[in-house]
Amino acid sequence: MKYKKHIFVCINERLDGRASCGEKTGMELVDEFKKLITENNLNTEVRAQKAGCFDTCGFGPAVVVYPEGVFYGKVQLEDVAEIIQSHILNDVPVARLKMPFSS
Questions:
Q1: pTM of whole model > 0.70?
Q2: For the chain, how far is it from start to end, CA to CA, in angstroms?
Q3: Euclidean distance between CA atoms 2 and 16, whole angstroms
Q4: How is domain 5-97 classified at the architecture level of CATH?
Q5: What letter does residue 95 receive in the DSSP assignment?
Q6: pLDDT tens figures, 4-53
Q7: How far is the C-alpha of 59 from the C-alpha of 100, rounded, in Å?
Q8: Which of 14, 26, 80, 91 has its CA 20 to 30 A from that of 59?
């Protein structure tokens, strides 16, 4: 496997007013993940990127970390550092952000 962890951030935006993760918020999250990945010298081990809809709009902004398949919901910019520190660096998912169906 090329990366030890792969972080996908939903940037889907519904134009009909229904709940969605949103492109602006999603891209801010992607940028913050990338910044912290670089600051922690994880560029060869971890990748963060934008993704389409995960069909979890009610929980957005949504983030998924693979290979574990952990779905995080209601992720805010201030949560990114905690996800990096706890889950990415120490393999301990952030329980308070996990979606109810997440592994």
A1: yes
A2: 20
A3: 38
A4: 3-Layer(aba) Sandwich (3.40)
A5: G
A6: 999 999 998 877 766 678 878 899 999 999 999 999 999 999 999 999 98
A7: 10
A8: 91
Burial of 30 (C-beta count, 10 Å sphere; 0-12/13-18/19+)? buried
Characterize the bridge pairing of strands 5-10 and 46-51: parallel
Domain boundaries, the chain: 5-97
Helix ranges (DSSP H) in 1-103:
23-39, 77-82, 89-90
Q: Which residues, 6+ apart, have CB-to-CB distance to 44 below 8 Å? A: none
Residue type for position 26: G
The tokens for 13 are 């935006």
The residues with which 10 forms a beta bridge, in sequence order, are 51
